[in-house]
Design brief:
The chain has a domain of about 180 residues: D-Amino Acid Oxidase, subunit A, domain 2 (D-Amino Acid Oxidase, Chain A, domain 2), CATH 3.30.9.10. Strands 4, 6, 7, 8, 15, 16, 17, 18, 19, 20 and 21 form an eleven-stranded mixed sheet that branches. The protein contains twelve helices and 23 strands. The protein has about 425 residues and is of the alpha+beta class. It is globular.
Length: about 425
């Protein structure tokens, strides 16, 4: 008999999972409170890159702790009461910043990102969205030699994993990006990175492909879970009950809250972030996304304008917005590039779910037959979603995934 699967969450991870399972012969229902691509997946910088294999909790975090104590940097802000209420996550997050742990995580993420980039290219073609793709790479920019030297560990890891990079001086930066003000002394150009001009629209296109192939999308909010015989039951906000043989929870930052309804507790932190689109002054143009390491922001050319995204804000998932970090990032960005009036009236905020080791959970819940997890992709869900789908579908069908799935197993937190 055809197995009925419900996938909760219509971000890049959930949509990719739903598509992959549909292709494997499952009967798939995709469910979310919003339309596909309208939550966390909407607001990223649109970059697919192996350089994302380095998690933010790496040894440089320890060196920068004195600077972060002020809680005024653009790269990292935190709400101390949240960290104190979640000491288990905070302590484990810091303990995973050791060099040996970072290399272990980098190796696992590199496999997942590489697989995802292959899968993305296949899906982009199937969805007819090739026009959104740029293959000009992206840059990490440094305003002074001290900032460049402080990034040596990251470059060492890039070299260890054979990333295609090139170190640029001020003149070479200007040759590639002549509209940037000459405030940067050095850059690392990630040459094999790709970027998309509208991440939310791409996720929506993947979802449209899913429906065209026979998948079903239901716009409802899941409120609770329960086991139902040999399967699972999802109770929605309006009191409907949806029964399935297999259930995939891919709700990103909202996954832990729903899993608590079946007494499953996951240690989760939230790397919240903000963005807004801006126009450029006459003649101003960027050829690729850039990350100003000193300024603590990313600026990416998008369909809507130039998307300015902030660094990390550690706080509760649905805590009130705090825009001081964003305002500081805008000020820094205007020093580098001729931005003019914003396109929107207010910044957008997204929540990036982060487990203590900065790796997602991909796989089955121990002793809960038919319950599968795919969340916790921190700020790199957009470039790991399709690979996650491939790994999870193989696990669900009893096949061997193309990469080692053990670093992502649920057992490391749900023994």
């Amino acid at each position: 008999m055809v197995r009925q699967v419900v996938v909760l969450g219509a971000g890049i991870v959930g949509v990719s999972v739903a598509l992959e399972l549909l292709d494997r012969g499952f009967e798939v229902t995709l469910m979310d409170r919003k339309f596909p691509g309208e939550e966390t997946s909407y607001g990223n910088a649109g970059v697919w890159t192996r350089s994302s294999l380095v998690p933010i909790n790496n040894p440089t975090l320890w060196k920068n702790l004195p600077k972060f104590v002020s809680n005024r940097t653009t790269a990292l802000r935190y709400y101390l009461p949240f960290l104190m209420r979640n000491l288990n996550w905070t302590f484990r997050f810091l303990m995973n910043a050791r060099h040996s742990k970072v290399l272990e995580t980098a190796a696992a993420l590199d496999q997942l990102i590489s697989l995802s980039m292959q899968e993305h290219m296949r899906l982009v073609a199937a969805a007819g969205e090739e026009k959104r793709l740029s293959e000009k790479g992206w840059m990490f920019l440094y305003r002074n030699p001290a900032g460049f030297e402080a990034s040596q560990l990251t470059r060492d890891i890039f070299d260890r994993f054979d990333l295609d990079t090139e170190i640029l001086d001020a003149d070479q930066i200007s040759d590639l990006e002549p509209s940037l003000n000459r405030i940067f002394s050095a850059a690392t150009w990630i040459k094999d990175a790709k970027s998309i001009d509208n991440p939310g629209a791409l996720v929506a296109a993947y979802a449209k492909l899913f429906v065209a192939k026979g998948g079903k999308f239901v716009q409802k909010s899941a409120q609770s879970l329960s086991q139902s015989g040999s399967g699972w039951n999802v109770t929605t906000q309006d009191g409907d009950n949806v029964v399935c043989d297999d259930l995939v929870v891919a709700l990103g930052p909202w996954s832990p809250g729903l899993l608590k309804t079946v007494s499953i507790n996951v240690p989760m932190g939230y790397e919240r972030g903000y963005h807004m689109h801006f126009r450029s002054a006459t003649g101003g143009h960027l050829n690729r996304p850039i990350c100003d390491a000193s300024g603590g922001y990313v600026l990416a050319p998008m369909e809507q304008g130039y998307r300015l995204t902030t660094g990390v804000e550690l706080d509760a998932c649905d805590a009130p917005e705090k825009i001081n970090q964003f305002e500081q990032a805008v000020s820094s960005a205007k020093e580098a590039f001729p931005l003019t009036g914003p396109v929107e009236n207010t910044p957008w905020m997204g929540r990036r779910p982060t487990l203590p080791d900065s790796r997602p959970i991909i796989g089955a819940v121990p002793k809960r037959k038919g319950l599968w997890l795919a969340f916790g992709h921190q700020h790199i869900g957009f470039c790991t979603g399709p690979g996650t789908a491939r790994v999870l579908a193989d696990l669900m069908t009893g096949q061997s995934p193309p990469i080692d799935a053990k670093p992502f197993c649920a057992e490391r937190y749900l023994a």
